[in-house]
Amino acid sequence: MRRFARCGNPRLVGPCNIPKSILLIVALLTPALISAQAGSIEYQGRILAHLQHVPNSDKNKRIGIAAWAILPNVVRSDPFRALVLGGLLFKSEKRWIEFMAGGLMTSDGTHALELNVRTLDKSLKRAEIFLETEYLFRDRKLTIFPNATTSVRIKGISLKVGIEADLAFAPKGNVFIVGPRVALPLPICRRVCKSAFLTTAYRFPTEGRKTLRQYLVLNF
After folding, report:
1. Pairing label, strands 111-121, 95-106
2. pLDDT, tens only, 81-135
3. CATH architecture entry for 18-219
4. In a 10 Å sphere around its CB, with 0-12 CB exposed, 13-18 middle and 19+ buried, how is residue 117 labelled?
5. pTM of the full predicted structure?
6. Coil, strand or helix: which one is 13?
């Protein structure tokens, strides 16, 4: 019969031998499952794949290409939506900016052209600043997505903790959303992608239901 492990004894089987990152992933996913069952909070699951490529032929060359493939909400299937963007990348050691265009495609056959600018700044000592601006021509909608995070370690696990917001301006009305976020690096796909993160964000809008959104981000 197997005995449950005491912490620090690798020969025994038990919860102490489960990697801390796995336990933290479960802790982050549990509120999502509870809220989805209770219906008190809207749950959204978002998958993002991000590619940056700068030619290696010239070490001083900082111009490349960038692309994003985004499934805005895999939980909602009616209609199912996908966003594909591509364009120019300007990159330095501690910051980058992307100028892109693309299309929002839906399963009901409607499509929309979008312009998008994204930038990340790591020059600050204790914070990373990300800013995205998008314009959706179909809805004449301008949306700004700022977020700021700082790196922390909790019992040997690295996390990025901060705040995010959505500021949307459109003829149908403006929407403002803000809330905390925590990003956990995932030890997956290291042979294929550069990094992977699971981000959990609680979002509090000025109007409508509170939202729990989780992002799976793969960087290539």
Report:
1. antiparallel
2. 999 999 999 999 899 999 999 999 998 888 899 999 999 999 998 999 999 999 9
3. Beta Barrel (2.40)
4. middle
5. 0.83
6. strand
Q: How crowded is residue 89: how many other Cβ atoms within 10 Å of its Cβ?
A: 20
**Upper half-sphere CA count for residue 98 (Cβ side, 13 Å):** 26
Assigned token pair, 205 = 């809008």
- Residue 177 and residue 184: Cα distance in Å, rounded? 22
Q: Is 37 exposed, middle or buried (0-12, 13-18, 19+ CB in 10 A)?
A: exposed
N-to-C CA span, the chain:
45
CA angle, 131 then 185 then 50, to 5°: 50
Summarised one tens digit per residue, pLDDT across range 158-185 is 899 999 999 999 999 999 999 999 999 9
